[in-house]
Amino acid sequence: MVLLTACGENGPSGNRASDADVAAVVAQAKKATEANLAGTDRKLPETGPKAVPGKKVWAIACSLQGSGCALPAKGAAAAGKHLGWDVKVVDGKLDPNVYNQQIRAAIADKADAIMLFSVDCAATKGAISEAQAAGVVVFGANALDCDDKFAGGGERMFDGYLPWGKNLDAYGQFLSTVVGPAIADWVIAETDGKAFVVELKQDDLAVTRHVGESFRARMAECSTCRVESIPYTSGDIFSGKLQGKTAAGLSKFPKANVVMSPLDANIPVGVGAAVEQARKAGRSDLLLTGHEGSPSSLKLLRSGVQNFAVGRPMTWLGWAAADSLNRLFAGEDVVDSGIGIKSMNSDSVPDVEEYDGNAGAYQQNYIRIWQGK
């Protein structure tokens, strides 16, 4: 349980210094949310190496059923056609044993490189070592290396990775400095600093630990906000227990006005149903937030089941990863891809089936670079 203190003993208004502090936090959150709703994509790369053709690449997705895994892997495969690569997209089936099997299958297939999409180093360390010993390049896209504090905390193993942001951060830094705070800023802004959050807290997945920790840290700056954490695991998702856990949390905290899910994927498999049930029982103002802006999430935002998501361009991610890997093949440094986020609420859902960023013609831009133009 995490409790972020609510109003002080002097009553709802507290003292003047506290009121001023809260007002400042709310103003900051509203300013950040306004920028995030507009989208934070940056300038596309202007130059880079020509395509290094003839490469055999395996793109291992954590699952081909989850858009956050499948769309980037398929995007990399589409980009690979323009690079002259043979890209094989494979399904990790959300199973670390399968991840390792697929890496070893890529070694046997004499792949030149393996791209990992939401497949972290900590779960595949031995197989990665075997791949590198065989001369296979291991590239992390939206994946956490073994030096990440939540994914092993050891030494970096990836031969290369997709840089995140203008400072070329690792993926964990992006989640902690951008995604988690963006969710918190919207919650603070939308509730005018009066948020009582039921946070779904998953600690058996490094990605959700990054999002959750940074969300709570930002919420802690709002002294009139409160967060109560409800733990859940991957096993709860697969066994269909997530709806019950969410409903129990809402029952335990009847004054909560926000439910935060660290991933959109949780919402269609129980979280959304629990929130809708609570709304029908009289809590019509209950808000539901997520992260990814997946195609299913866009539909839920339009219907009003979900109220907010941090949207991320997943197909573009795959193209950017392919460009970064091509730079690695060419012996050049990676560069900022320009990928940012776009916060979405029910009033600002992009009129598309799949959100893929605000940068126009990024695919044509990469193709131009790869053709040496």
TrEMBL record:
Keyword Signal listed: yes
Keywords of this entry: Signal
An example Gene Ontology molecular-function term: carbohydrate binding
Annotated compartments: Cell envelope
Tree of life domain: Bacteria
Residue stretches making up the Periplasmic binding protein domain: 73-332
Pfam families referenced in this protein's UniProt entry, alphabetically: Peripla_BP_4
Chain coiled-coil ranges: none
A GO CC annotation given for this chain: cell envelope
Family: Belongs to the bacterial solute-binding protein 2 family.
The protein's name in its UniProt record: Monosaccharide ABC transporter substrate-binding protein, CUT2 family
Naturally occurring in which organism (per UniProt): Micromonospora inyonensis
